């Protein structure tokens, strides 16, 4: 079917006039008539008949006009949806993240994004840093939010999102609360609740000890997982080095306090990672524009 002729007929049917259809379409009246006659000839049916100074549709014309309504409504919907996809208001957003940002940053960021872009489907995949980078490079993720590590593959562009301060925390009744103590005394006199080998938090604590010539704490209490470690500290089993993001609720609730250990300052960098020299999808670009800076 000649869609141009159908569009002309659609205007005639809506407006009930060849003259008004010509004005709407910005073409001459004879050109409108030619398209109408060509459409009637192609289907072997009259689509209009004269009535006074105007025209009315035949039965075949009424049926065809109804189908044209459906077709051009769908066309308008497709155009609108494609524009929404182009501007990031429709489509999907896939995020890869390590544990810390997935639990303590992305919920707040996604709440802000979803408020502005409610029709974008969002997926968060939580994993370790290596798998998050692999998902990004395999196009399984649009953006990766990764904590702790400081070196990345050359095909991954990393921008520092924030520096999450690490603090040594204890229960409020710990004997060293309110005192300023060096790390050496803390390691000597206090039981540490440690993360498992390979944990970035454990590695940071041991690096602080090495830098100050201190033997690292003994692994008499060791837990796999940050929340397990924090709960052990809340139970009074010992002090622990933990992310400010992870402990903020416990500090606010009064179940943990920060110890003043002046020579144990450390930060955990959190990175926003994208593919080097690869433009962001409209949805990913909208996410970046909506969620930065982090509030």
UniProtKB/TrEMBL annotation:
This protein's source sits in the domain of life called Bacteria
**Which SUPFAM superfamilies does this one have?**
Periplasmic binding protein-like II, Winged helix' DNA-binding domain
Give all residue intervals belonging to the HTH lysR-type domain. Answer: 1-58
| Annotated family | Belongs to the LysR transcriptional regulatory family.
Residues annotated as signal peptide: none
Q: Which UniProt keywords apply?
A: DNA-binding, Transcription, Transcription regulation
Cross-referenced PANTHER family? HTH-TYPE TRANSCRIPTIONAL REGULATOR, LYSR FAMILY TRANSCRIPTIONAL REGULATOR
Q: Does the keyword Aminoacyl-tRNA synthetase apply?
A: no
Does the record bear Hydrolase in its keywords?
Answer: no
Return the protein name. LysR family transcriptional regulator
């Amino acid at each position: 079917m000649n869609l141009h002729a159908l569009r002309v007929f659609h205007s005639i049917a809506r407006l009930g006039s060849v003259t008004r259809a010509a004005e709407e379409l910005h073409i001459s009246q004879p050109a409108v008539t030619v398209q109408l006659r060509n459409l009637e000839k192609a289907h072997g049916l009259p689509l209009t008949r004269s009535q006074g100074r105007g025209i009315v549709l035949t039965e075949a014309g009424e049926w065809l006009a109804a189908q044209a309504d459906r077709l051009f409504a769908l066309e308008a919907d497709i155009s609108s949806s494609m524009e929404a996809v182009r501007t990031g208001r429709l489509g999907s957003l896939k995020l890869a993240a390590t544990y810390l940002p997935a639990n303590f940053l992305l919920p707040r960021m996604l709440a802000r994004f979803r408020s502005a872009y409610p029709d974008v489907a969002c997926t968060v995949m939580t994993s370790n840093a290596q798998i998050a980078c692999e998902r990004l490079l395999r196009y399984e993720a649009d953006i990766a939010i990764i904590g702790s590590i400081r070196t990345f593959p050359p095909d991954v562009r990393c921008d520092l999102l924030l520096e999450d301060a690490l603090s040594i925390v204890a229960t409020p009744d710990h004997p060293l609360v309110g005192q300023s103590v060096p790390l050496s005394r803390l390691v000597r006199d206090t039981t540490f609740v440690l993360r498992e080998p390979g944990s970035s938090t454990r590695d940071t604590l041991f690096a602080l000890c090495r830098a100050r010539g201190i033997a690292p704490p003994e692994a008499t209490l060791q837990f796999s997982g940050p929340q397990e470690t924090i709960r052990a500290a809340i139970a009074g089993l010992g002090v622990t080095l933990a992310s400010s993001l992870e402990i903020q609720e416990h500090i606010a609730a009064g179940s943990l306090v920060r110890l003043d250990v002046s020579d144990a300052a450390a930060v955990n960098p959190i990175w926003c990672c994208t593919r080097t020299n690869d433009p962001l999808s409209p949805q990913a670009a909208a996410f970046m524009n909506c969620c930065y800076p982090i509030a």
